[in-house]
Specification:
Structural class: alpha/beta
Strand content: 5-15%
Number of helices: 7
Largest sheet: 5 strands, parallel
Low-confidence stretches: none
Radius of gyration: 18 Å
Order of helices and strands: HEHEHEHEHEHH
Mean pLDDT: 82
Distance between the termini: 46 Å
Number of strands: 5
Length: 175
């Protein structure tokens, strides 16, 4: 998807959950000799500059945990003509708020844009035994056309469970 958008000149923002995963995608793009920027904790000094360039024609930006918050991605006129910013989420974050921030990066203030989640059944949120068991049943029982929707909803349920767990931990720390 990244390469298709890049060929058409459409700028792409790819959201990942870790430095390791952002560098894995970067390595793949390097092998294909495709110019891109990586925005993670290792590039925090250049954060504003990388995000500012993310709206140019053909730009590819890989970001972890929505690095670059507070800096708008301004689309060039030619990038608007190419369809605007294409935002890809590679996996769900522990906090749904981060996913919503990433989604909000496209089609801002009347600009064109697109948001897509490309998720795996091997997502880290599905690693609990019960969640994995339910997911395996879904693959066996649910008709093909509904599998993706049911699997996505299961991931969102798992995400909410992780959010509640983290909230409980923060609350106990404060007490």
């Amino acid at each position: 998807k990244i390469i298709d958008c890049h060929k058409n000149g459409q700028p792409v923002l790819v959201g990942t959950t870790s430095i390791e995963k952002s560098e894995k995608i970067s390595s793949y793009l390097n092998q294909k000799k495709i110019k891109h920027n990586v925005l993670n904790a290792k590039q925090h000094e250049k954060e504003a500059k990388i995000i500012a360039e993310a709206g140019k024609v053909g730009a590819i930006t890989i970001a972890t945990n929505m690095a670059g918050r507070g800096t708008d991605i301004k689309l060039s006129d030619s990038a608007r003509e190419c369809g605007g910013l294409y935002v890809i989420l590679t996996e769900l974050h522990d906090a749904g708020r981060i996913d919503r921030q990433l989604e909000g990066r496209c089609a801002r203030q009347g600009d064109p844009g697109m948001f897509e989640m490309i998720l795996s059944a091997e997502d880290h949120l599905l690693h609990g035994k019960l969640i994995k068991y339910i997911h395996d049943i879904i693959l066996l029982v649910v008709p093909g056309k509904w599998k993706n929707s049911v699997s996505f909803n299961l991931m969102k349920i798992a995400q909410r469970k992780v959010e509640k767990k983290h909230k409980k931990i923060r609350k106990s720390l404060l007490n």
